[in-house]
Amino acid sequence: MFSDISLNILDIVQNSVSARASLIEITVNISNAEDTLTVVIKDNGCGMTDSELMKVVDPFYTTGNKKSVGLGVPFFKMAAQLSGGRFEIDSEKGKGTEVKAIFVLSSIDRMPLGNMTETIMSVVKANRNTDIVYSYTVDSKGFVFDTRQIRKIFGDIPCDTHEVNDFIQSFLNENTAELNSGANY
Amino acid sequence: MKSLEELTAIRDKMQAIVNLRIEDSSCTKIVVGMATCGIAAGARPVLKAFSDGVQSKGIKDVMVTQEGCIGLCKYEPIVEVVAPGKEKVTYVNMTAEKAAEVIEQHIIGGNVVTKYTINSAM
Ligand SMILES: Nc1ncnc2c1ncn2[C@@H]1O[C@H](COP(=O)(O)OP(=O)(O)O)[C@@H](O)[C@H]1O
Ligand code: FES
Ligand SMILES: [Mg+2]
Hints:
The complex is a heterodimer of chains A (about 180) and B (about 120). Chain A is of the alpha+beta class and about 180 residues long. Chain A has six helices and six strands, in the order H-E-E-H-H-E-E-H-E-E-H-H. Chain A has one domain (about 5-175): Heat Shock Protein 90, CATH 3.30.565.10. Chain A is about 40% helix and about 25% strand. Chain A is globular and about 45 Å long. Chain B has about 120 residues and is an alpha+beta fold. Chain B has a single domain (about 25-120), classed as 3-Layer(aba) Sandwich (Glutaredoxin). Helices cover about 35% and strands about 15% of the residues of chain B. Chain B contains five helices and four strands, in the order αβααβββαα. Chain B has a four-stranded mixed beta sheet with strand order 2-1-3-4, covered by helices on one side. In chain B, a hairpin with a 6-residue loop joins strand 3 (about 80) and strand 4 (about 90). Chain B is globular and about 50 Å long. The chains are: A alpha+beta (about 180), B alpha+beta (about 120). The interface between A and B is large, with 49 and 36 residues. The complex binds adenosine-5'-diphosphate (ADP), FE2/S2 (inorganic) cluster (FES) and magnesium ion.
């Protein structure tokens, strides 16, 4: 088990990377009115057949050939269910996969969200040729981070630099803090 | 709220510098194992230490990437250094501090940090 949701998200995103996705969309949506914290990870990778999809929520199902256990998806499902929430996974072979976990926000059994900036920065830095979209919303106010927008600004100019990464980090940190307005999720 | 459009100013400053893109194939790859067990064992700060370290030292021909299961759970976090024309080096039980040493001695200095490799752990 992970200690926070952001590490769980990083693990689910690794599945999308392994599935050779060229676009990975990560959404975190917090609603105090509905008392939910919803995480969606959507990719356009290789997807799964219906029978693969049925097995994936079973602990230990894996197609990784180096070992015999696959716990990433079951952990995520369990974490959502422990808080009284629910979990959905949908996939189409050749099209992509969508994983959705809905946590009960106020449940004491809900893991904290953790450091999403670190998770997004890791994914962006380690997957330079993959488009990453991250949107964070608190009670219908939010921001969107989109590497396609950055690529459009930079064109041929390399954007994997200190200055750009520093900017992305403060973009994520400052906007998240503004939306949280003092609350700690 | 900050906007990504603010990056336009950073881009305009960078345009002045001649930036040569380095072909992926001639890059040294630092591959961080990011399977479930790797992340649980602390792979995220290790990846951060490598990518921040490589960038702050101004090293241009090195790429940090992530991979799924490397198959050696009990040695996680695992990091492989793959340099063109050289044998792959596998570092085990990595931490951010060890990452700094590997950058200094191996990536910059060209000397494998033998004490952190899989061979000395076994
Ligand atoms: N986004 C995805 N796209 C395609 N296949 C996936 C995806 N997520 C999970 N899978 C399949 O489900 C299996 C189990 O996933 P997981 O529980 O994370 O364990 P592991 O990644 O360690 O194998 C994977 O090996 C893969 O075959
Ligand atoms: S599951 Fe541990 S290295 Fe693969
Ligand atoms: Mg996985």
